[in-house]
Amino acid sequence: xxxxxxxxxxxxxxCLLLALCLAIPFLIQLPRIQTVDNVDYFTVEDDPDVAxxxxxxxxxxxxxxxxxxFSSPDLFTPPLLRMIAAITRELETIPEVREVxxxxxxxxxxxxxxxxxxxxxxxxxxxxxxxxxxxxxQALGNPLYVGNLVSADGETTxxxxxxxxxxxxxxxxxxxxxxxxxxxxxxxxxxxxxxHLAGWTMTNFSLSQxxxxxxxxxxxxxxxxxxxxxxxFFRNVRLTLxxxxxxSMCTGATMGLFPLLGITLNNVTTIVPPLVMALALAxxxxxxxxxxxxxxxxxxxPAKAMERILQRVITPCFLTSLTTAVGFISLVVSDIPxxxxxxxxxxxxxxxxxxxxxxxxxxxxxxxxxxxxxxHQRKDIGxxxxxxxxxxxxxxxxxxxxxxxxxxxxxxxxxxxxxxVETNLLEYFKPSSPLxxxxxxxxxxxxxxxxxxxxxxxxxxxALRDPAKLAVIxxxxxxxxxxxxxxxxxxxxxFLKDMNMSFHNENPDFYVIPESRELVSQYLLLYDSDDMxxxxxxxxxxxxxxxxxxxxxxxxxxxxxxxxxAFIDQHEHDxxxxxxxxxxxxxxxxIDALVRGQVESLALAAAVITFIMFLALRSFVAGALSLxxxxxxxxxxxxxxxxxxxxxxxxxxxxSVVALGIAVDDTIHFLTEYNRxxxxxxxxxxxxxxxxxxxxxxxxxxxxxLVIGFGVLLFSSFVPTMSFGGLSAVIMITxxxxxxxxxxxxxxxxxxxxx
Length: 755
Known about the structure:
Radius of gyration: 32 Å
Largest sheet: 4 strands, antiparallel
Mean pLDDT: 85
Number of helices: 27
Oligomer: single chain
Strand order of the largest sheet: 2-5-1-6
């Protein structure tokens, strides 16, 4: 490392050219960076439940939909009914639409004794008040409509739109679909008032749009805050510009990896730019902190002075880059592609950060006038005076501080035990967000837009014409409706029960499964509609039960899924193969895989980083001591999450691994300096005090920069990103406390015997 530092100062032009040659291949890729208009990528790789869900969609068609709803006390009047019919026809012309279901095109089963017919519900729009009243009563009396196409009070109606899902290469089809639908609806707002849209199509698109708005905010705001921070700490325009040049090169090269690796900007990888910017600046700060004119005078030349500075910081900076990269690369054990991609790109960013901090920044600094960047650094005023007083307090009260920290840590561990593991998709959005307001409007009036499916498979053709097997499906639906968060269910059986009621002169007592296989076959022969196609195969050997959910919490959805599975396991199925599947199962599995993966990543990162610390510090005791200030912020973070009721979810699960890799950085700088002082035969207390004075300013500056880097994420429109940023910023503060207070106090509490 020291030889490398000498090379940089002896051949600065060569190193500068080398840095540019390294950066250019990546920088030219920046225009090719792609964002996506969907979040379809957030699934578990090689998950058998995902594969089975895909097979169900291939059998019954894609189940994605979104709901367009509006309300009016005059819903069943000719103008509004004509408008529903017009909107339905116009939506069906959109190329991305597979099907639209509404009161205007749904089929209606009307019967008399021993006979029924299937006709369009809105076969014609009546003008007579009595006929309109009868039409409304028919709609509200049909279980297939209520909660799906019309509210129970008859004042809200829905048009359910099913998109055509193209191949994965066309990620913007939802954007096109929604824009065209909004254009159509805008022409009818004068009559209907406001339209409300909700469903997975809308949620998926909204997530991607928030991601894009975050990217537009994060980078400029990070630049602004970092510029202000550098200026406040060093009050030097040249150093501020040099730091900006370095972080720009690091961030640009890192982002250039995205198109080369086929990675897109998504809701996880958007964190990379502000993160790399903050970490790149941290190394710059450690270099800047040694720009003392006394050193320049002693070295007699700027190149020699720079060489001494680099020799002093290059090893700890290399170790910090290495340990941070280890923290990030440990994420690749995840089964979730975006997490894995984040691990690859962020760890590569740490390599760029180290290389550019020592190949690009020092040559640029040597091009500046020494008087313009070197300053007289005094340790008896300002930050130096504060650090001196802090060191005195810590040394005077080491044992009480250690006892207090121990109690605080134990309390945090207890609080951490109360953390819930869940992701609530609704709470991903701020209460003021349009999507959340739309959901809050639609779900109480109609049904939830979340879905769970149950696949019911028989072993032979026409098996699902048997009333005994149909009764199994009916029992499953009845049980599902008893579960909190389940709003309605639909299956092939509902259509048969409706036929049976119509066959018996619309007598509600006959809204039951037909009593014989022959009667079922007779009904199916009379029924002339394709409305059942998404619930039963043409061979009548496989059926699908659709369950609509208003439960958005992954923990609540997991409870529903577990209850359904338990019911299936505890009851006889008459030879049927029954399996719970659907989007909710996929999402719950993703959360489980995410948390499991983060535990594995944290264990892997902790083991590798600990091993690196033991080797780097060449001391078992020093390596063990380094664990104290790094475990402390993570434990406190989990304690805060427990106290504030913040769940472990798709964003907060990432924090520990990321924080461990970053928090160890300042510990390395501190202990490396401490070991150097001890090697000079300084007593322990004096070595600690000198280490705090020599490294404290840079540690405080780099911690503040990281707080700002993570704090920028609070500007996100996306609640998980805000949580990630806020909690990570808190970890950086507690890590600073761990390095400057907890670690020295712990070392002093052993009276120097362990150091």
